[in-house]
Design goal:
Blueprint: H1 4-26, H2 64-73, H3 109-112, H4 140-147, E1 152-156, E2 163-168, E3 171-175, E4 181-186, H5 204-211, E5 216-217, E6 221-226, E7 229-236, E8 241-249
Antiparallel strand pairs: 1-2, 2-3, 3-4, 4-8, 5-6, 6-7, 7-8
Length: about 250
């Protein structure tokens, strides 16, 4: 019997089968993509979407999702150009004030009250005695021209000659029935009476320095007489301070 051809024939067939099986095992599985499932959907089922593998992060480098989140969290800046004016704050808004500032050009009411000039009427002249820049030869009209209308006005009873009194801030002026000045009296130490720098409340020695030696000097008053007038300074004998300053006519 001739068995050799049959054995060779079957040997060749087995060799072809082995080679074919080896080729199929070396082929990639269904051209699989990274991150996708290798199982095919059964008939009547919807294929599941491929599962996205988590992104690998390098050390010290934020992920793209984190970078996008940071970018979206940034505040949107106003699109202002250099030529656009800054928005103005409405009147009455919080943090704004609308107050009038007090300056030297805007004096307080007390500063606006008229006083004797430091250059022309603050020097006492015995030949032309005056107080507050007023003389006994002045009238109501001249007083109002210098000091405007008084703060108050009242009558002083006098059997011989009733007097009308104008009261200003820091001094008073009395007028006789002919509207002439009868007396002037200083009532405040904060006002300049026009006596060479002497003020109410100063000492007797200050009066002698400013006005010289008085014609009469008692423990209670100093008298300076000139041209039918008397400048009288009432004095506190205990403290030797000047309590009042008056200018009036000598009674005959």
């Amino acid at each position: 019997m001739n068995h050799c051809p049959n054995i060779c024939k079957w040997g060749a067939v087995l060799l072809l089968v082995a080679v074919s099986a080896g080729c199929n095992s070396a082929r990639p599985a269904a051209d699989q993509l990274p991150g996708t499932s290798t199982s095919a959907p059964r008939f009547g089922q919807v294929a599941s979407p491929p599962v996205q593998q988590p992104e690998k992060l390098e050390a010290g480098k934020p992920s793209q999702l984190a970078a996008d989140a940071q970018e979206s969290a940034k505040p949107v800046e106003a699109n202002l150009t250099p030529d656009m004016p800054a928005p103005s704050t409405p009147a009455g808004a919080a943090g704004t004030t609308d107050k009038k500032v007090q300056t030297s050009s805007n004096p307080t009411p007390s500063e606006t009250s008229k006083q004797p000039s430091e250059t022309s009427e603050s020097t006492y002249d015995a030949k032309k005695p005056s107080l507050m820049g007023l003389r006994l030869s002045d009238t109501k009209t001249t007083v109002k021209q210098k000091f405007e209308a008084p703060a108050s006005e009242y009558e002083m009873d006098d059997d011989k000659d009733p007097l009308t009194v104008y009261e200003y801030e820091g001094f008073i002026v009395g007028f006789n029935r002919l509207n002439g000045v009868e007396f002037i009296e200083v009532t405040s130490k904060d006002i300049n009476p026009g006596l060479n720098g002497l003020y109410l409340g100063q000492k007797v020695k200050d009066a002698e320095t400013a006005l010289g030696k008085p014609d009469t000097n008692t423990n209670y008053a100093l008298h300076y007489k000139a041209n039918g007038t008397v400048l009288k300074l009432d004095v506190d004998p205990k403290t030797e301070t000047i309590q009042s300053i008056k200018l009036f006519a000598v009674k005959t």
